[in-house]
Amino acid sequence: MTTGRAIGAGKPLAVTCGEPAGIGLDVTLAAWTRRAAAELPPFYVIGDVAALSRRAAALGLAVPVARVSAGEAAPAFGEALPVVDLGMATVAEAGRPARGDAAAVVASIERAVEDVVAGHAAAVVTNPIHKHALYDAGFAHPGHTEFLGALADRLLPRGDGRAWRPIMMLAGPDMRTVPITVHVALAQACRELSTETIVETARIVAGDLATRFGIARPRLAIAGLNPHAGEDGAMGREEIDVIRPAVAMLLAEGIDVRGPLPADTLFHARARATYDAALCPTHDQALIPVKTVAFDETVNVTLGLPFVRTSPDHGTALDIAGTGKAHPGSLEAALRLAARMGGGM
Q1: Helix H segments across the chain?
Q2: Does one domain contain both 19 and 146?
Q3: Are residues 80 and 26 in the same domain?
Q4: Does residue 187 sit in the same domain as residue 154?
Q5: Residue 75: cis peptide before it, omega within 30 degrees of 0
Q6: Radius of gyration of the chain from Cα atoms?
Q7: d(CA 300, CA 32)
Q8: In whole angstroms, what is the distance from residue 54 CA to residue 56 CA?
Q9: What is the reported pLDDT for 345?
Q10: In the chain, how many domains are there?
Q11: Does one domain contain both 159 and 181?
């Protein structure tokens, strides 16, 4: 369980560009132009100054880009987009990932976490990565969430021999959802779902809702895996054999939890008012509702780590990169939430 202490409280946010061929550059540039109207906290970008300047010109955005150190970012933010340049040029054109850019993408994530650990930044805000491009270059993690967990283990080991357990949560204006299994095929997710995994996930969610979000007694709802939550075993026994024992264990620990509940009636407005976060057995059960209700305002938050990380809830959107059609709303929401959670400026 994480603590409420923010390592770099009072510092700007460290933002990664994500996939250079995607819309990460677009929304970052657009967010800076809207910094006052959107009430954004100061942030700096870790990436390639030249690539950002090229994309700004292509989009017709008057964004001066300033090469800075992390310590110079906050004073520069009002007049220019502060960029910590790693000296790793990226060459991808909008919409066309380049395999050679993978090292720079990975290095930017590592540097953002290192800056938070060193107290230079209040939190990490990551733009979307293109997983296939990274896999082709040898990236060994299923996604951002798992990579951040590995970085936490290396840079801030727990001291008790256990690994940090990163948990993905999607947070919208009036809904929070957590996939219990994440970046695996549906058949594998059904095999991986276990009482122990549910209990461990719920403990972390409840703890971080209390320490990071200020909810004194978080209310959790756990969705069933099968239609109608299995109908007492008529459509599967996972609810009986796996989910109910987890709920019983959590209640015995004093965690406010209900379930298993039918997923098809868990996300309408009246239902959402009864819980602070819904935990779902599979990835799409959790992500489809929140993205449907508030796509441009939903934030991907990583719980269970010793630092704050948020991200837009969308992908790289290669088809609209460089066109000016990408909306920065989700990134702006991620910046504001990261500042609140991490004690940023």
Answers
A1: 24-33, 49-59, 73-76, 102-117, 131-136, 144-155, 186-192, 195-211, 238, 244-252, 269-272, 283-293, 329-342
A2: yes
A3: yes
A4: no
A5: no
A6: 20
A7: 20
A8: 5
A9: 63
A10: 2
A11: no
pLDDT score of 99: 87
Q: Identify whether residues 52 and 156 lie together within a single domain.
A: yes
Q: Which residue has the tokens 């269970």?
A: 304
pLDDT in tens, the chain (345 residues): 344 446 666 899 999 999 999 999 999 999 999 999 999 999 999 999 999 999 999 999 999 999 999 999 999 999 999 999 999 999 999 999 998 999 999 999 999 999 999 999 999 999 999 887 777 767 788 778 888 999 999 999 998 889 999 999 999 999 999 999 998 899 999 999 999 999 999 999 999 999 999 999 999 999 999 999 989 999 999 999 999 999 999 999 999 999 999 999 999 999 999 999 999 999 999 999 999 998 888 999 999 999 999 999 999 999 999 999 999 999 999 999 999 998 766
What is the residue-wise DSSP string for 80-114?
A: SEEEEE-S----PBTTB--GGGHHHHHHHHHHHHH
> How much is the pLDDT for 132?
78
The answer to whether residues 137 and 239 belong to one domain is no
Question: Six-digit token pair at 140?
Answer: 């060994």
Rounded CA gap, 191 and 318, in Å? 33
* CATH number for the domain that contains residue 7: 3.40.718.10
Coil, helix or strand for 261? strand
**CA nearest 329: which of 173, 177, 168, 96?**
173
Domain shared by 161 and 178, yes or no: no
Rounded CA-CA distance 184/63 in Å is 39
Same domain, 146 and 212: no
Q: Establish if 302 belongs to a structural domain.
A: no
Residues 6+ apart with CB under 8 A from 266: 221, 223, 278, 289
Structural domain range at position 32 = 1-166+310-345
**Which pair of structure tokens corresponds to residue 105?**
């993408």
Among residues 311, 305, 204, 303, the alpha carbon closest in space to that of 253 is found at 204
β-bridge mates for residue 292, sequence order: none
Does residue 344 sit within a domain? yes
